[in-house]
Design brief:
Structural class: alpha+beta
CATH architecture: Beta Barrel
Shape: globular
CATH class: Mainly Beta
Distance between the termini: 51 Å
Oligomer: single chain
Helix content: 10-25%
Strand content: 35-45%
Radius of gyration: 16 Å
Order of helices and strands: EHEEEEEEEEH
Length: about 160
């Protein structure tokens, strides 16, 4: 019978500031999760990283390409028969469309997986569900606005 592990993440003060997250992200894009590529586990730690195959549909920032392998901390670790949940994060759903804020590297990520993009982790940071065309346009416009404000007022 699978067990559950909850890992509480301490986030910095800017974790929920979308303007700061937009600046930190190397790519902001809308994409649909087409499948789970693999789960990365470490045998010595109750941990899991779920790697999703995402079809990129619209790009706000960066050059992610037509598809990316996007990694989210959490998931099922089959070696330990363990579901790993990070804070209150919800795993991405296959078939769902999201606006993603991603970076090609993340401290603490599995170093052998250099081809992956990463979401910031903890408490649903780094993605927003796109439910229809109106929400897609609203989210894209919102993040374009954050980037335009940064261009006019750099730190």
């Amino acid at each position: 019978m699978p067990r559950s592990a909850y890992i509480q993440v301490q986030l910095d003060a800017d974790a929920y500031n979308p303007e700061v997250q937009a600046r930190r992200a190397e790519a902001i894009f809308v994409g649909t999760v087409v499948g789970i590529d693999r789960v990365i586990t470490r045998h010595t730690v109750d941990d899991a990283w779920t790697v999703f195959d995402v079809a990129v549909e619209d790009v706000v920032k960066g050059e992610p390409g037509e598809s990316v392998l996007l990694t989210q901390w959490g998931g099922y670790n089959p070696e330990r028969h363990l579901w790993v949940f990070i804070s209150d994060d919800i795993l991405l759903r296959v078939g769902a469309t999201y606006l993603f804020l991603a970076t090609p590297s993340l401290a603490g990520s599995p170093p052998e997986e250099a081809d992956l993009w990463f979401l910031p982790h903890g408490l649903n940071v780094g993605y927003a569900r796109v439910s229809d065309a109106a929400s897609r346009q609203r989210l894209m416009q919102e993040y374009r606005g954050y980037l335009a404000a940064e261009a006019h007022n750099p730190d």
